[in-house]
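Quick one, tokens below. Sequence please?
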């Protein structure tokens, strides 16, 4: 039996079915073997591990510039002193010295002091070539004032030498040696009152019947009360009340100079007992030992330092004083054999020079010029010293106040 021939309609339906089948097959092929049936949840995707961030680049710190301090200048020296007398310093710590030197509240560089010793000042004449008469004393005071000098006390001098405390740019210190209440009252007190000055008395205690409490008061013609004082202590205490005098130690027994051969007991008597007596009578502890007879040595100086004296005075007229600048000698001078060398004693502040009054007027120009030269030397080196202080000292000692 002959199969019926498909009609055009049947052929068309067959072709459509084949096409649909091919489309389904191709879709399945495209999905691939990992394709999941619809409605089945996809497995959790593993987290991608985080990467360590690359640090940002930081420039290295700029290295600190190391500043080299300048070399410090040599101290002021002068040919105006005797060739065997040289200025020495006594402050070993450089930063401390520079701070005190350049503090604008302190004494200016070139500030200079003349220590002067006095003994008797007779009205008309004297047999001692180192001493002066009343007329010469008045001329000396006029010369000092004419050159712009002002009187200060030993206490003020001590502050200046130790810390550069401010004092008049040109100063002098008057020290009247020994127990001379009549000279203090008659010669000095009128000058002190007229100029609003003060001075220092170098007072020995005395020994035996000559002690100050046993010694009778001195008759002073210009003091109506001089006949009423029971003893010398009462008289000098009364003059002390004027406010014009400081009293410093001139030893106890006084007549035997202190040396390296002196016993410990003698040194304590001269230094410690005299200090105790003066403190008890005047309510003020003396700051200076005026070496009796000009005698001193290393052991007496060490005892004086231990006893609490701040300064000491010789009879050596080596020159004026400036801050951290004391004229001294290391050896005896054959031309001036009575002046003991200060260097071996080892303490410039306790072996300060003093002028004899007969030398002052003739030395004033020389002294004044030393002050001017020292001031000019300091100014010429100021920038160097300030730079050194800023680099080396400021971190530990603090910056200097504004100049």
């Amino acid at each position: 039996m002959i199969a019926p021939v498909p009609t055009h309609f049947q052929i068309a339906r067959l072709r459509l079915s084949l096409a649909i089948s091919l489309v389904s097959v191709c879709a399945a092929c495209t999905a691939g073997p990992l394709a999941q049936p619809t409605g089945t949840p996809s497995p959790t995707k593993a987290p991608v591990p985080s990467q360590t961030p690359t640090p940002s680049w930081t420039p290295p710190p700029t290295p600190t510039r190391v500043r080299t301090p300048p070399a410090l200048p040599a101290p002021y020296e002068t040919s105006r002193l005797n060739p065997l007398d040289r200025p020495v310093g006594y402050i070993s710590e450089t930063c401390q010295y520079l701070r005190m030197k350049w503090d604008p509240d302190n004494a200016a560089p070139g500030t200079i002091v003349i220590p002067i010793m006095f003994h008797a000042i007779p009205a008309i004449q004297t047999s001692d070539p180192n001493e002066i008469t009343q007329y010469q004393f008045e001329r000396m005071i006029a010369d000092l004032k004419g050159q712009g000098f002002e009187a200060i006390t030993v206490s003020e001098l001590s502050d200046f030498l130790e810390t550069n405390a401010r004092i008049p740019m040109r100063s002098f210190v008057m020290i009247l040696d020994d127990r001379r209440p009549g000279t203090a009252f008659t010669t000095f007190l009128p000058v002190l009152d007229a100029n609003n000055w003060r001075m220092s008395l170098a007072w020995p205690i005395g020994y035996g019947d000559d002690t100050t409490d046993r010694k009778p008061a001195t008759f002073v013609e210009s003091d109506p009360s001089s006949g009423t004082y029971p003893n010398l202590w009462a008289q000098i205490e009364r003059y002390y009340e004027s406010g014009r005098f400081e009293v410093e130690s001139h030893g106890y027994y006084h007549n035997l100079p202190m040396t390296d051969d002196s016993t410990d007991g003698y040194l304590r008597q001269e230094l410690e007992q005299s200090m105790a007596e003066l403190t008890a009578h005047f309510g003020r502890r003396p700051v200076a030992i005026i070496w009796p007879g000009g005698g001193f040595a290393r052991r007496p100086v060490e005892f004086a330092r231990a006893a609490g004296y701040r300064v000491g005075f010789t009879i050596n007229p080596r020159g004026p004083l400036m801050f951290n600048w004391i004229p001294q000698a290391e050896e005896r001078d054959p031309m001036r054999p009575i002046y003991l060398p200060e260097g071996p004693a080892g303490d410039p502040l306790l072996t300060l020079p003093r002028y004899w009054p007969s030398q002052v007027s003739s030395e004033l120009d020389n002294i004044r010029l030393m002050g001017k030269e020292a001031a000019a030397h300091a100014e010429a080196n100021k920038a160097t010293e300030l730079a050194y202080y800023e680099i080396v000292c400021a971190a530990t000692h603090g910056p200097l106040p504004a100049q």
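The chain has a mean pLDDT of 89. Strands lie at 86-88, 112-118, 150-152, 170-177, 199-203, 245-249, 288-290, 311-313, 326-328.
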